[in-house]
């Protein structure tokens, strides 16, 4: 088992994935299945960055995240709010109140702030009959900074593993810092929008 996890084995596996003729479809399938079993989307995005690099990995991750989100949205639409609320132990009802204004900004905030799992947000949006266009646009806008930061960080992490270097540490740290600032700014704007006098 340990032989499967050494540096050379992982690199060979990643190279084989990159050379697949249908690599983009394979990436979409990973996100689709991962969404159905509620795998953390951060891990899937990081895998895309490590395998395909920061930019192509970001494109695949964005496409995969959006397709997974739309698939789960459709499942939520079919399941309905009552079924989903029972299945989630009441979490769906609380999250549904966050979607009450039915705007793009709401989805952007939910993508940037870790208030609920990625798949649960998608299911609840569908069950709440959140407007599909707003949902798709909000998901794309909210996921862009998350995906870019994580794919850059994961790609540099692979370099750090093979060759610890100050530049790799700086870029990886800068990616996390940029994401942290985006989350902080989003949280402040969200708080001010809810409590203008705060």
UniProtKB/TrEMBL annotation:
Give membrane topology per the record: Multi-pass membrane protein
Keyword flag Ribonucleoprotein: no
**Residue spans crossing the bilayer:** 20-46, 58-84, 104-125, 132-154, 166-186
Keywords in alphabetical order, please: Cell membrane, Membrane, Transmembrane, Transmembrane helix
Pfam family example for this protein? VTT_dom
Question: Which intervals hold domain VTT?
Answer: 40-153
One Gene Ontology cellular component = plasma membrane
Family, per the entry? Answer: Belongs to the TVP38/TMEM64 family.
PANTHER family in the cross-refs:
GOLGI APPARATUS MEMBRANE PROTEIN TVP38-RELATED
The name under which this protein is listed is TVP38/TMEM64 family membrane protein
The organism named in the record is: Desulfoferula mesophila
């Amino acid at each position: 088992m340990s032989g499967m996890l050494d540096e050379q084995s992982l690199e060979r596996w990643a190279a084989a994935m990159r050379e697949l003729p249908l690599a983009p479809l394979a990436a979409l399938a990973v996100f689709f299945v991962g969404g159905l079993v509620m795998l953390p989307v951060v891990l899937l995005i990081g895998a895309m960055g490590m395998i395909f690099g920061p930019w192509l990995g970001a494109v695949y991750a964005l496409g995969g995240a959006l397709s997974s989100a739309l698939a789960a949205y459709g499942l939520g639409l079919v399941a309905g709010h009552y079924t989903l609320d029972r299945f989630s132990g009441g979490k769906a009802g609380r999250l549904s109140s966050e979607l009450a204004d039915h705007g793009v900004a709401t989805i952007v905030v939910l993508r940037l702030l870790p208030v609920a799992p990625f798949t649960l947000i998608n299911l609840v949006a569908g069950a709440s009959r959140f407007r599909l266009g707003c949902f798709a646009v909000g998901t794309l806008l909210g996921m862009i900074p998350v995906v870019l930061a994580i794919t850059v960080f994961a790609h540099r992490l692979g370099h750090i593993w093979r060759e610890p270097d100050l530049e790799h540490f700086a870029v990886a740290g800068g990616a996390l810092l940029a994401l942290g600032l985006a989350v902080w700014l989003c949280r402040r704007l969200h708080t001010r929008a809810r409590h203008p006098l705060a």
